[in-house]
Design a protein that fits this description.
By secondary structure, the protein is an alpha/beta fold. It has one domain: P-loop containing nucleotide triphosphate hydrolases (Rossmann fold, 3-Layer(aba) Sandwich). The chain is built from twelve helices and eight strands. An eight-stranded mixed β-sheet has the order 3-4-2-5-1-6-7-8, with helices on both faces. A hairpin with a 6-residue loop joins strand 3 and strand 4. The relative contact order is 0.18. The chain binds adenosine-5'-triphosphate and magnesium ion (MG). Magnesium ion binds next to helix 1. It comes from Halalkaliarchaeum desulfuricum. Pfam families: ArsA_ATPase. GO terms for molecular function: ATP binding; ATP hydrolysis activity. InterPro entries: ArsA/GET3_ATPase-like, ATPase_ArsA/GET3, P-loop_NTPase.
Length: 322
């Protein structure tokens, strides 16, 4: 087994991805707490539409970056999609109306219709993430993604937006607008802006200072899904920083219980498969299953200790403050 690239101190954007329920939020929270404890200005943000950062931190972090009262330098943000749609309408509503009315007989309801269309709020959420990435307010951005399926289709969407939102619709919109002898901005400007946003977000996730950590558990379905996720990410030229195998049963937890011994043997089979496939590239990190759920700062810090190589990456003793 080799040491995974993550947690490389030069990384600026670290995304945690994986199948539903495997521990993405838990690992994101643990990593973000570690970075902030090291003294880095850290934003932990989720794009999951059913977020659980407020629950795991036992704080309300919806809508705006919220400082953690006990961890200096850590801001946490759950994107509020309603707010996102409203902001999108403020930013683009007029232009959308102008664009559509240039070639269709529509009233202003078209703004609501487009704002809620599949992919549009997600696209704009990526724009918000991009703003944080480009701004120097934070040293590190830890991104707790929605379960892999939707994050991967988001990447696919960016690609399509970028490649198809190009010349043809722009020229069409301009020509129709000219035929109606409309004054004002060229309608294709909006399409160009969208295209640029799609390009910039793709550039962000493919940048050398961005990586995706794939979280999984040692069970058949999760390992299958991990293969698919890694194939998809590679297809989009996204760096994979590490595979985190969560919920690994510890020997002391299994002793004397045939139920747990059987489960541990089952896990062992998948751990071997995982190690064989990804042990050398990108490298595998094992995180034990704790006796209780991971909720509250103390439990998150326990995961931090398991997740990050504290000595090598110079993270101070995390439990000492409690
Ligand atoms: N190592 C662990 N030990 C014990 N419990 C854990 C561990 N990792 C995660 N859990 C628990 O498993 C549950 C799922 O974890 P988490 O919410 O992080 O997964 P997720 O991948 O973000 O899920 P979703 O796909 O729903 O967003 C939570 O209740 C969490 O407390
Ligand atoms: Mg989650």
């Amino acid at each position: 087994m080799t040491t995974p690239r993550w947690p490389d101190p030069s990384l600026r954007l670290v995304a945690f991805t994986g199948k539903g329920g495997v521990g993405k939020t838990t690992c994101s929270a643990a990593a973000a707490v570690a970075y902030a404890t090291k003294g880095e200005r850290t934003l932990l943000l989720t794009t999951d539409r059913s977020p659980s950062l407020s629950d795991i931190f036992e704080l309300n972090v919806s809508g705006e970056p919220t400082p953690h009262p006990e961890v200096d330098g850590l801001d946490i943000l759950e994107m509020d999609y309603e707010m996102v749609v409203d902001r999108w309408k403020d930013a683009y509503g007029e232009e959308v109306y102008h664009l559509f009315s240039s070639f269709l007989d529509v009233d202003r309801e078209v703004i609501d219709y487009v704002a809620e269309a599949p992919g549009i709020p997600e696209e704009y959420v990526m724009g918000i993430l991009l703003d944080f990435y480009e701004d120097d307010q934070y040293d590190r951005i830890v991104w707790d993604t929605a379960p892999a399926g939707s994050t991967l289709s988001l990447l696919e969407l960016q690609k399509r937006f970028y490649s198809h939102l190009g010349q043809a619709p722009s020229i069409y919109a301009d020509v129709r607008s000219a035929m109606k002898r409309e004054a004002g901005e060229r309608p294709s400007k909006l399409l160009e802006q969208w295209r640029q946003l799609a390009k910039d977000t793709l550039d962000m996730v493919q940048a050398p200072d961005a990586t995706f950590v794939v979280v999984t558990i040692p069970e058949g379905l999760a390992v299958e899904e991990t293969h698919r996720i890694i194939d998809e990410l590679s297809k989009h030229d996204v760096d994979i920083g590490a595979i985190v195998v969560n919920n690994v049963l510890q020997e002391e937890a299994t002793a004397g219980s045939s139920f747990h011994e059987d489960r541990s043997a089952m896990q062992q089979t998948y751990l071997e498969e995982i190690d064989e496939r990804w042990g050398d590239d990108p490298g595998v990190i094992l995180v034990p299953q704790l006796p209780s759920e991971v909720k509250g700062l103390e439990a998150i810090r326990q995961i931090t200790h398991e997740l990050m190589d504290l000595d090598e990456h110079d993270v101070p003793e995390l439990n000492s403050e409690n």
